[in-house]
């Protein structure tokens, strides 16, 4: 990989101050422009866990800190509609949601996250985990 050690960039998705469709468009634009995007809250330990995984892998990522964003609540509602989950973090790789903090840690621990990053396709990997079935993801 050409990325250097887990560098984080804070981003504000376009669509702030627009209606929900504008917010969804902003989210879509961001997740399709950046390799890894983490929608996070600055006080959420599960968000920190997800970021630490990418730091360990040396994979750069962009974050949108919803707790600091003027339209954070609207972004979180749009993410729930888009992904089916209303909690943070919501982690996207190559435009696809891989889940939350527990999902990201589990994918890292079983080697699937590195495979996803290497292959460049989330769809070729089974990313289901226990938390997808409702038994483990904590709420932030």
Automatic annotation (TrEMBL):
One GO term of the biological process aspect: cellular response to oxidative stress
Glutaredoxin domain: residues covered: 36-98
InterPro entries, per database record: GLR_AS, Glutaredoxin, Glutaredoxin_euk/vir, Glutaredoxin_subgr, Thioredoxin-like_sf
GO CC terms: cytoplasm
Superkingdom per UniProt: Eukaryota
Disordered: annotated segments: 1-26
Pfam families named among the record's database cross-references: Glutaredoxin (PF00462)
GO molecular function, one term: glutathione disulfide oxidoreductase activity
Keywords assigned by UniProt, alphabetized: Disulfide bond, Electron transport, Redox-active center, Transport
Electron transport listed as a keyword: yes
Cited function: Has a glutathione-disulfide oxidoreductase activity in the presence of NADPH and glutathione reductase. Reduces low molecular weight disulfides and proteins.
Protein name (Swiss-Prot/TrEMBL): Glutaredoxin-2, mitochondrial
Originating organism: Orchesella cincta
């Amino acid at each position: 990989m050409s990325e250097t050690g887990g560098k984080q960039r804070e981003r504000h998705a376009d669509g702030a101050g627009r209606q929900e469709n504008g917010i969804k468009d902003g989210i879509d634009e961001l997740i399709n422009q950046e390799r890894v995007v983490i929608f996070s809250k600055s006080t959420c330990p599960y968000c920190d866990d997800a970021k630490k995984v990418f730091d360990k892998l040396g994979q750069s990522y962009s974050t949108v800190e919803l707790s600091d964003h003027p339209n954070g609540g609207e972004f979180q509602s749009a993410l729930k509609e888009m992904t089916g989950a209303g909690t943070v973090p919501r982690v996207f790789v190559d435009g696809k949601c891989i889940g939350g903090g527990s999902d990201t840690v589990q994918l890292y621990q079983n080697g699937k996250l590195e495979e996803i990053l290497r292959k460049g396709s989330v769809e070729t990997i089974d990313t289901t985990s226990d938390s997808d079935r409702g038994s483990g993801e904590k709420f932030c």
